[in-house]
Each structure stands twice: as C-alpha cells, then as structure tokens.
Design brief:
- The protein is mostly helical.
- It has one domain.
- Helices cover about 75% and strands about 5% of the residues.
- The chain has a two-stranded antiparallel ribbon.
- The radius of gyration is 16 Å and the shape is flat.
C-alpha cells in the first residue's frame, strides 16, 4: 500500500513538473518572440510575469530533488539561466536567446552531469 502511494505521489510530482515546464516554455517563447520583434516593455509585461512565475515554480520543484542542488550541475545551470534572463532588460534579445540555450542544455544533460557536484567533485544524489 505504501509503495502504491509513493508511486502516486511521484506521478503527481512528475505531472506538476511537466505542467510547469510547459508553461515556462510557452511564456518564454512569447517573451523571446515579442522581444525579437520589437514589442514594447509594456506589451511584454505579461510574458515576463508568466516566465518568472513558472520559472520560480520550476526552481522550487527542481531544488526539492536534492539538498545539494544549488552546487550541482543542474543548480549551476539554473543560476546561469537566471543571470542571462536577468540581463535581458539591458542586453536585449541576445540575452534571452542565451537564456533559452542554457535552459535547453540544462534540461537535456545526462543525469551524471546534472547531479555532478562542484562541492564534492563527484556525482551526488
């Protein structure tokens, strides 16, 4: 019975992660596309908010997987992703493109690199 509940909780957690990632991709696409085609800051405000809120949800979800998260490959890439996104106001669409690339690379890294710890100099779960 406990194993069944654990699988159900994992399934719900995975579903939430998928919904958050999909929302983040959609919001970021609207933001990057709008910026690329010269939309004003006011026109992009909703996309900025949606990208930020969905990104925060993803960050919380990802960070809950390991207490070592922040200094593992996955956490380091999220920090780089946030930095690139944060610079978008000053640097424009190029910084958003950098954020997209960093996010895509981080999402598709093998687990051995995502879980590699700068602090431990090894893979840590």
């Amino acid at each position: 019975m406990a194993e069944r509940q654990a699988r159900a909780a994992l399934s719900r957690s995975r579903a939430v992660g998928i919904v958050l990632r999909t929302a983040h991709l959609a919001a970021m696409a609207a933001l990057a596309g709008g910026a690329w085609f010269g939309a004003s800051a006011g026109e992009l405000r909703g996309a900025v908010v949606a990208t930020s809120v969905s990104g925060l949800g993803l960050l919380v979800s990802e960070a809950s997987h390991s207490r070592h998260w922040v200094y593992q490959g996955r956490g380091l890439l999220v920090l780089a992703h946030l930095a690139a996104g944060g610079l978008a106001g000053a640097l424009g669409p190029g910084a958003l493109l950098a954020a997209l690339v960093i996010g895509a690379v981080g999402s598709h890294l093998p687990k051995s690199l995502r879980a590699w710890s700068l602090r431990h100099w090894a893979v840590v779960e």
